[in-house]
Amino acid sequence: MKKLVVILGAAAFLILVGSVSGVANAVGDKLLLYVRLARLYTKEPPAKIAMPLAGISRKQIANTWHAPRGSSRLHEGQDIFAARGTQVYSATPGYVFNIGENRLGGQTVSVIGAGGRVYYYAHLDAYADGLEEGAYVTPQTVLGSVGTTGNAQGTPPHLHFGVYMTSGAINPLPLLADRTLERSRQ
């Protein structure tokens, strides 16, 4: 009985500390995000997605899928060239899963959409104000702006746009549909 009282007391203390410090909220938010993502995995991924840059048509994109990158890897996405600072929109509804930085992509945002597809936006110059991990986004949501971060330093500004399934990278070019003006407005 004494052990039970100690365990219950410790649990109450942890709940109190967690509530006061915000840890409980953070854990709850993360759990809620995972529930939302699990729902997305049950949906069929779209056959077409919106161009992530307004004013760029599919015909303007040079196909860079699987172009050699050095001697040991192939390009897993499409490079969409635009002026530095051009707004980058989400290509699909989904949830922001990661906002971060890495050696190749520089400043990046990853969005998970229907079917568990991951949409990867890289070489961003800046992130959109207020963008947070766990946020729900639509094709009208600005994620950031075109830049040259990561291994794109010294190249013309562009968005590296990748699409990943559980089986690996897929070519995003056949999925892209030109963005209409209405779909670009926030």
Alpha carbon gyration radius: 20 Å
Number of helices: 3
Mean pLDDT: 84
How far the N terminus sits from the C terminus, by CA atoms, comes to 59 Å
Q: What series of H and E elements makes up the topology?
A: HHEEEEEEEEEEEEEH
Query: How many β-strands, per DSSP?
Result: 13
Low-confidence stretches: none
Look at the helices and sheets and give the structural class. Answer: alpha+beta
CATH architecture of the largest domain: Distorted Sandwich
Task: Supply the CATH class of the largest domain.
Answer: Mainly Beta
Any overview of this molecule?
The longest helix is centred in the first third of the chain and has 20 residues, at 2-21. This protein is α+β, with helices and mostly antiparallel strands. The strands form three sheets. Strands 4, 5, 6, 7, 8, 9, 10, 11 and 12 form a nine-stranded antiparallel beta sheet that branches. A two-stranded parallel ribbon has the order 1-13. Strands 2-3 form a two-stranded antiparallel sheet. The model has no long low-confidence stretch (mean pLDDT 84). The chain starts with a helix and ends with a helix. 23% of the residues lie in helices and 32% in strands. The protein folds into two domains: 2-41; 49-184, Glucose Permease (Domain IIA), CATH 2.70.70. The protein has three helices and 13 strands, in the order H-H-E-E-E-E-E-E-E-E-E-E-E-E-E-H. Strand 6 and strand 7 (106-112) form a beta hairpin.
